[in-house]
Design brief:
By secondary structure, this protein is of the alpha/beta class. It has three domains: 144 residues, Rossmann fold (3-Layer(aba) Sandwich); 73 residues, Beta Barrel (Elongation Factor Tu (Ef-tu), domain 3), CATH 2.40.30; 199 residues, P-loop containing nucleotide triphosphate hydrolases (Rossmann fold). The protein contains 14 helices and 18 strands. It has a six-stranded mixed sheet with strand order 3-4-2-1-5-6. A six-stranded mixed sheet has the order 7-10-11-12-9-8. Helix 7 packs parallel to helix 8. In the N-terminal section; belongs to the PINc/VapC protein family. InterPro entries: P-loop_NTPase, PhoH, PhoH2-like, PIN-like_dom_sf, PIN_dom. It comes from mine drainage metagenome.
Amino acid sequence: MAKKSAGATKLFVLDTNVLMHDPSSLFRFEEHDIYLPMVTLEELDNNKKGLTEVARNARQASRNLEEIVGTDLINLELGCPLAINGNKHVTGRLFLQTSQVTVELPGLAGSKADNQILGVVLDLRKHYPTRQVILVSKDINIRIKARAMGMPAEDYFNDKVLEDTEILYSGMKELPANFWEKHSKAMESWQESGRMFYRLTGPLCKSFLINEFVFYDFEKPFHAIVRSVEGNTAVLEIVKDHTLPKHNVWGITARNREQNFALNLLMDPEIDFVSLLGQAGSGKTLLTLAAALTQVLDKKIYAEIIMTRVTVPVGEDIGFLPGSEEEKMAPWMGALEDNLDVLNKSDDEAGDWGRAATQDLVRSRIKVKSLNFMRGRTFLQKFLIIDEAQNLTPKQMKTLITRAGPGTKVVCLGNIAQIDTPYLTEGSSGLTYVVDRFKGWGHNGHITLMRGERSRLADFAAEIL
């Protein structure tokens, strides 16, 4: 590899938390070089024991380092090429700290790991005055210290799916007032097994995504789902109106446009993966359970409902819980209980006995599972609901969704404004990741629920607090 001029590439000094957050971060800096202080290696070693995600990542980072450094005794002063295995596109080199650094840090205790890393950065800046030396860390405090000493410091952003969640795909598109003038020229319409289809041609059609909802809310409102897109031509299907009592789902009717779209996705057997985003009280869990019960008990499309969620407490952890897996998960499943109460109330004619019988039948068809035991499983003909999915990392999300066997539908619910996991942000959450990656696939549907429907108190609190 030809050596680049010293000023062309940057030198990134990595903090330990970057490697423990993403072990493959070593291969994410493309043409730039990486420098690892000895303290970073020491901290990796201190964190390698145990079964936690952090320990697992520390071990993987160490394995990656061994592969890069190799077994031959090479001159580490020149650095080791990072282009190994499937990372041939990476042209940077890895440097390890090979000599003791003695830099006086103004007002900082020298023995603390963070301060030693800052010392290394200062020393490198003296050695390479023409190069940009940048500290990369997930720790806010070390970045503030670095900036206070006039050193550039950055967060590690590579795992962010989107820089700004405002541009996250919402699953629907509003059509402009002049839509029909531009798109109705060669329009065809037909009916097929009770469903109404339109084929339109026009400039907006190429921006549609498959299974995206389009709505026109001027005179003669029009709500449809995009079924296929070819160039400037799109086929739209009129959505079923679940706001009407005759089209209720397990006694539940949609209260707004987004809920109606969500029920269309949840009730469509052709859609294998549904993601619903929305604030507290927008009806995500209720709509999903209503659709699941209808399809398990009435239509018998799926054998049973499996519900799982990440067990991240909002306050302190409550420690070990006695009992079986179902009993241990019970405290986390308050949301399930609350929604089942609503769904049971919807059957007025049945009386108390009938309701109790329904309740037992419903209970027998809903299994509550812990995420910890999902590896290696395959779900056949199940309706899998992943609640509070915003607390999952992209890797955990992949593990869960790849459990789906034939005939299984996976529904992810969450609110990316309520992330409880310490190291996830709205941009790097597994929920943001799947919404972004799955959009436009023929068997995927997504909708962002806009309005809360819980109560006037909850809506006011969500808005004002």
